[in-house]
Design brief:
The structure is a homotetramer of 341-residue chains. By secondary structure, chain A is an alpha/beta fold. Chain A has a single domain, classed as Rossmann fold (3-Layer(aba) Sandwich). Helix content of chain A is 42%, strand content 18%. In chain A, strands 1, 2, 3, 4, 5, 6, 7, 8 and 9 form a 9-stranded mixed beta sheet that branches. In chain A, helix 5 links the parallel strand 4 and strand 5. The longest helix of chain A has 20 residues. The first copy, chain A, is globular, with a radius of gyration of 21 Å. Strand 9 of chain A pairs antiparallel with strand 9 of chain D, so a sheet runs across the interface.
């Protein structure tokens, strides 16, 4: 196998195990290819609010691009802002507005479109609780569609929301539960919220990704086994995710790479050993690290200390965005009136 | 309308709003009828563990009995023990064993019967969280049926478990969600856990009711609107409930009745006013009290201070009972090995 | 004992067991005295924000007034607003502002006054968790007084905050712990937050009382045994409380009184029994009810279903008020920047 | 500075930042010194329950030993068992018994000795919540010393317990709060529980350290600034700690060291770069990694996914051990009767 072939065959696998973010997958691809242009992958960027918010739109338009990126054909919109890690309400509101607006570009919703919001993840594991927390903040209206307060009538869509739990607790694949509910609620759109795994610690809790391709298997904190997508659910799906953890082996791998590179620059002489290190196929090195981290790898992850407060805040931003996008007739400042807490 | 007719027409309504317990409905019926024998209702009692545990089996065998009791035809097994309110592990274990054993009398399970446990109620409202808490303690096995540890193989049934949430949070009738999951999991038996409302404060958190009639509408803490039963779910159902609250109006009503009766005994003279009070139809008096308690009635309830600890304990007893009944090949002391916490 | 004497001797006791609110004690006194004027008790009222907020200032100025009211000499400011039970952010902000402003009238704070905020109550019992929750939202600054961000310097007072727990969990009288901390921190002012018991369900979670007399024994949810006041602590104290429960016996008693009165009006004939009932000394009737409610009375209380969300909201209002009052150099909209969540 | 000198001067610092465990500090020392014998440090080991539990007693007897180890003179007893990570009740009970017994060797308690248990750490950050959780499971008796149930009289010591919070939330150094309470309670012994930082992931949640030297500054999850010891508290102290996290930079550093060593063995040729790497002073390398991990280092840590359940379990083991050691007259199986949950 020549080097070209080897690289290609590996791409889908090694990307998918380490990052759920298209924007990171694209960075890795650019590093390997030494070019930021790749056929079938279009990337455009925007900045908002004095550069406090960075938006990257990755559009995967061909099978070739999908294979290179390790992500299905579709759109991946990433919002990055360090303000998500802080208590900066003004920026949070702006992020929610941009998110709501971009959602309108990913999917056209009829006035009476039926929506099902699905909060993936585990209530009891803080970094995996993002989805259930968003669900608890959604303005659900489907059950009161016939008896709405006058000022809401005609201004809200019939929205429902579930937190199906995780397979380890239910014994049922998440997709089965969601499919069962979809069969009865018959939504025009499913919106799934999930906690993701990132490659860079700087992106943890500072990034929101929204895509029209669904939730992919084998990734995230809770490691759902089967994907949630239009095919498996029988309804269009928008997935919204936030990287809340970095897996320990990825952290070690990336930190080490950067440290070795920095040292090789400072001491270029006698870097045969360094050459040997960087010549290691990425996957091999990752496996080696994972073995050393044994027996805890897979169960161990890296998370900031203030994770409880941060997840609460992120859930608020995403729920606000969804409430705005799904109930366009209600002004933002009035949502609180219709919510419990 | 003569008195006979009046009484009969009222029975189903006024019972159902105030107690979920067949054993209490039967007490009320006995009071009104001034007899403990009623056609179509058989009651038998047992005592266990030095009278620490009292078991009452109410069997409703005719439509006439069902109408009188305000409960569907079927079996209602009630376990009462003050030890449930205390940290008396030995008695808790015995209660779990009796519950598991009686469950075997209500339903015959084949060796490979597929089970779905449904934890009704709201995670965020402590006295309504019993169902979800039981679910979190169930040994689920359906997803690992093909890859069981050797010592479990052949000893466990494929059990799954969900906590579907409440309509106020999901926008979906609970029965719709459960039906959706039932359609995909196709269980041979559904076991539903719910928090109930009782009439007597002494029964709060000290009583477990198990029945083969399902969960009835219009009762309980969370006030589910539609029933979960074999007809609506398409699968046989066992319902297990614990009264965790008394509604405030019921408490006032019953306490007042007892107080007035006690005073009338002490001062029998000039009790015209008392006569007037007891002549009030029960429902009328209840409505009057509910109005006075306004605006909070329905949202207010009466609960012991240590409710968090008590609900945790009760969830443990019921989960143990179910784990024993559903996985008969595992010895009680070994369950903990296969559970997370 | 003539009637006059009897009444007087009972006053302090029967009030103190049933309400922590001076405004309710005053209502009861007015009922008994059939006059709203009482020597040594001055009451003035204000309304704010379109009558959405009602403020009552009860000033007790003589020992005679104190005895009649069952409350120590001092000032009792009560804010009442149904908006506290709802998600009405605008009114909440106004309530916090009024509270901060009135606090300035109760106590003069020097620019560098050292403050200790004490959150009384039990983290694990929701209606008793108000104090600890407020503590978690206070902008504490004492430990960073020497290294403040530039924009805070000179604008904040050295504030510290503790949640000492309850005697059942610590084995130590709360006042001992607080006194121990006071001896070391040497605050110029202690602010104590506590959950209270009210007499009327309509006041639950809809009332904030602030007084300069400290926290009195024998009242509240957690039933602290010894008082926290300037004498026991060795520092001036402001107490802020919210009634979060009604005790079950009080609820029954008051509801029954109102029901019987309403029935006596409708059917004035033959009300000898009613006369007998109202002739019962209040305390006797309360004891009778408490006995009937036995064995749960004292441990049982009446609380709204959504208590978790409501306590969170109330803690936010009070913490905002304190942050404004204690750190006057910071504008309200900026507090969030310096807080974690 | 010759190599000997350099090494010695570094020892106290670089150890203290990375591990709170004497047993790990001793391993590092043994590696550097290439001998397991060190003057002033005695190490003895025991095994229990079929080698499921390993006990190491490190006794530091001279200033020289203390300096080398980076730990004060005193006794450090470490219990290691992978069973702590699992739901193995039998082993947990044995661990609690051994812990109680060894505590008796560290300190002689008179029959009526007054005890204060201090749970260090933050309720709201799971891996730091060990101390407060233990406190909530302690059988406190000081407040009921005069009114004990008959079967307890003479069998229990007056025990009190507090969870003082962390400086970031209180604005007060933990030692100040504890000292304030000690001045009032006047205990004969303080027992402090804390979450620690370990160097090896395999030790996380699988190790309990008990020492008679107190809690040292600059270590642990919450990074207390000042030490709690006999000098600062004015009372003897036993410290019990469990490593619940590894800091991210330590994890990377150690994993990298092991990986590079393993690669250097496989490819000994051209290892100049490797030589350069290992010649880096440890501290320098650690700083380099910490910078790369910036901006999250210090706030990021590595923790197992099931951390909530594990901390609960560990708190149970330690609380059982303390209840046994402090109340020797009560048989183990009876503690539950006197505890709330």
């Amino acid at each position: 196998m020549n080097k070209e072939e080897q690289k290609e065959s590996e791409i889908p696998y090694h990307f998918s195990v380490r990052t759920d973010l298209a924007v990171e997958a694209n960075e890795l691809l650019a590093d390997e290819q030494e070019t930021s242009e790749y056929d079938g992958i279009d990337v455009s960027e925007e900045e908002h609010l004095d550069k406090k918010i960075k938006l990257t739109w990755v559009k995967v338009s061909s099978e070739n691009g999908a294979k290179a990126l390790g992500k299905p054909i579709g759109n991946y919109i990433t919002l990055e802002s360090d303000a998500m890690k802080e208590n900066d309400l003004e920026t949070h509101e702006e992020i929610a507005k941009i998110l709501a607006q971009k959602m309108g570009k990913l999917v056209q919703l009829k006035k009476n479109a039926v929506i099902l919001v699905v909060g993936l993840g585990n209530w009891n594991v803080t970094p995996d609780a993002l989805g259930p927390k968003v669900v608890s903040k959604i303005l659900v209206t489907r059950h009161i569609a016939d008896s709405l307060p006058e000022d809401l009538e005609g201004n809200v869509r019939p929205v429902s929301a579930i937190a199906p739990g995780v397979m380890g607790l239910t014994g049922i694949e998440t997709v089965e539960i969601v499919r069962g509910v979809v069969d009865r609620v018959k939504p025009d759109l499913v919106v799934a919220i999930d906690a993701l795994a990132a490659r860079r610690t700087s992106r943890i809790n500072a990034t929101i990704q929204m895509s029209d391709t669904g939730v992919n298997p084998g990734s995230g904190v809770g490691n759902r086994r089967l994907g949630l997508n239009e095919e498996t659910l029988g309804a269009p799906i928008i997935a919204i995710g936030v990287p809340t953890v970095v897996d320990a082996a990825t952290l070690v791998n990336d930190t080490m790479d950067r440290m070795l590179a920095s040292m090789a620059q400072q001491a270029p002489k006698g870097t045969e050993f360094y050459q040997m290190l960087i010549n290691l196929a990425d996957e091999e090195k990752y496996q080696l690290i994972a073995e050393i981290l044994n027996p805890y790898t897979g169960n161990m992850f890296v998370t900031p200390k203030e994770v409880d407060a941060v997840i609460e805040r992120l859930a608020g931003i995403i729920a606000n965005a969804l409430n705005m996008a799904l109930h366009p007739g209600i002004r933002a400042e009035n949502f609180n009136r219709y919510l419990d807490a």
